[in-house]
Amino acid sequence: MELFSTAWWSALLAIILIDLVLAGDNAIVIALASRNLPPHLQKKAIAWGTVGAIAVRSVMTVGVVWLLKIPGLMLVGGLGLLWIAYKLLADQDDGHHDGPVATTFWGAMKTIIVADALMGIDNVLAVAGAAHGSFDLVIIGLLVSVPIVVFGSTVVLKLVERFPVIIQLGAAVLAFTAAKMVVGEPLLDPVYGGPDTPASAQTLQTIAQWATYVVAVVGVLGAGWLVTRRQKGAGAEAAVTT
What we know:
mainly alpha, 81% helix
């Protein structure tokens, strides 16, 4: 693709739009994972979480052709992301920051890096497809995603402090993203449909897709609610006994 040609600019616009849509999930993960940190570590977690996300995505971008050949990759990534969405709800903070701060910080970093690696699959594949083999566009796409993730994480974190319900909304977004990854797994085309799906089977497969979305979101939110309720009950019992 010729540099600065009409096709080049069109591909660049497509990549920026992809980053705007898909980087939002990364921003949500970084914000939710760092919400329980002391204020002086939240900015540090956002900065290093973004660096880690971009580093992981860069490695994945270089190996995107190889990644495309791995059967079951989207399925495994989707299931892993479901678990992370649940953990972000289950690991509620009681307002205290006891124990070694470094452990808390690195725990948040681990969640951020793993989640970004799982979610980065669809982003990398989308950007690589839009770039049409142009490596300079892939690099620009990675650079564009940095400010989007940093700014988005900061905004989400401030909103979470004011409106805690955003934690549930964020987990629902991650669960929906995970379900889309599962639905997009080529190995599951007989269930969810693919390029060669006959028209007679499309209705049932569409129902299967939406059923998966609903089960993923409701399952994560329901499990998170149950765990949070038990934690509050245990905390109340401990307060009474003391």
